[in-house]
Amino acid sequence: MRALALTVAASLAASAAVPARAGADESGFDVRVPLDSGLTAAALVGSLLFMFVPVDRDRVWERELLPVDLCVRDNFSASAAKLSDGFVALALVSPLVAELGGGVDEAYSKRTILYGEALGASLLLNSAVKYAVQRPRPYVYNPDPRVRRWAKAQGADSRLSFYSAHASMTFTAAVAGSYLFARQAGDDTARAALWGIEMTFASAAANLRVRAGKHYYSDVILGALLGAGTGYLIPAIRDDAGFYRPSTRELVAIGGGLVLGTVGSQLLPLDDDVLASLGGVQVVPVAWADGAGLLVGASY
Predict the structure, then answer these.
(1) DSSP characters for the chain?
(2) How far is residue 10's CA from residue 61's CA, in Å, rounded to a whole number?
(3) Which of these, 206, 59, 226, 210, lies nearest to 129 by C-alpha position?
(4) Would you say residue 196 has pLDDT above 80?
(5) Largest CA distance in the chain
C-alpha cells in the first residue's frame, strides 16, 4: 500500500512540474492546480497515516463474506502476486502514455493532476476501510509451514485483505484515465482501444490477487466497483462538458476487456510457488520539458 501511495505521488509531482505552453487552457476540466495538488497530497498523506492504527495480528475469521470466498481460502502463489503487480503498473501508466500523443502541455498537466486526484481519493478510502475491517488474507489459512512463516513476517499487512487496493487502484486508473483520454481524443477507435486495454489490465490484476492468496473474491469485486465509481466521478464532476457517456464501441471494448482480463488471467499456468520474498514492481511516469519517460524500480 505504501508503494502505491508513493507511485501516485511521484506521477503527480512529475505532471505538476511540466511547464505550460503559451495559449489557452484546453484541458476541458475545471482544475485548480494548487487546490487539486493539495487535495491529492492530503489524501496520500492520510492513507499513510492509517498505518499507525493498531492491527490485531492474531485474529482469524470463522466465516467469510461470500460462500465463494471459501473456495480460495489458503490460496498462495508468489508468481501470481508478482504478475498482478505488473498489471497494476501497466494500468497506472498506460493512460498517461496514451495522452502523450497530444503533447506535454498545460492541458496534459491538468488532466494528469485530476488523474492523480482520483487515485489519491481511491487510496484514502481503501486505507480507511482496510484498517477498520482488518480481514485476514487468504494465505493466513495456508497449511504450508513456509507460507505460515512468511505470513507471520508480514505483520499487520496479513490482516488487511478487505478490500483490495490493487483492484480499486487499477479500476480507478482504468476508468479515470480512459475518461480523461476520451475527452481529448477525436478518434473513436483510439478511445475504445484504451478502454479495452485498461479494463483488461485491471480485471487481470484483480483476479490474480485472488490466485495469489492476497484477496478473496469479495475483496476484488468491491474494490473494482468502488474504484470504477471513483474513477468516473472525480473527472465527471469537473468536466466542463458534462458527464461523459462512452459510445457503443467503447462499451463493447469495456466488456471485452473485462472478460479477456478475467478469463485470460485465470487460464495462465501459474504454480502455487513459495518464494523467500515477494516484491512489487513500480513504474512511475516522469515528464520534463522536452519529453517524458518511465522510472522503473522494485520493492522487497
Answers:
(1) -HHHHHHHHHHHHHHHTSPPPSS-----B---HHHHHHHHHHHHHHHHHGGGS---SS---SS-SSGGGGGGTT---HHHHHHHHHHHHHHHHHHHHHHGGG-SSHHHHHHHHHHHHHHHHHHHHHHHHHHHH-PPPGGGG---HHHHHHHHHTGGGGG--SS-HHHHHHHHHHHHHHHHHHHH---HHHHHHHHHHHHHHHHHHHHHHHHTTS--HHHHHHHHHHHHHHHHHHHHTTBTT------HHHHHHHHHHHHHHHHHHHHS-------S---EEEEEEEEETTEEEEEEEEE-
(2) 37
(3) 226
(4) yes
(5) 63
Domain layout of the chain by residue ranges: 2-299
Q: What pLDDT does residue 286 have?
A: 45
In angstroms, the CA 214 to CA 286 distance is 30
64-68, 146-150, 247-251: which is most confident: 247-251
What amino acid occupies position 294? Answer: L
Share of the chain above pLDDT 70, in %: 82
**pLDDT exceeds 50 at position 103:** yes
End-to-end CA distance of the chain: 13
Instruction: Compute the average pLDDT of residues 77-86.
Output: 94
> What sign does the dihedral 63-68-73-79 (CA atoms) show?
negative
Q: What are 246's three cell numbers?
A: 462512452
Band (pLDDT 50/70/90 cuts) for residue 54 is very high
Q: pTM (2 decimals)? A: 0.85
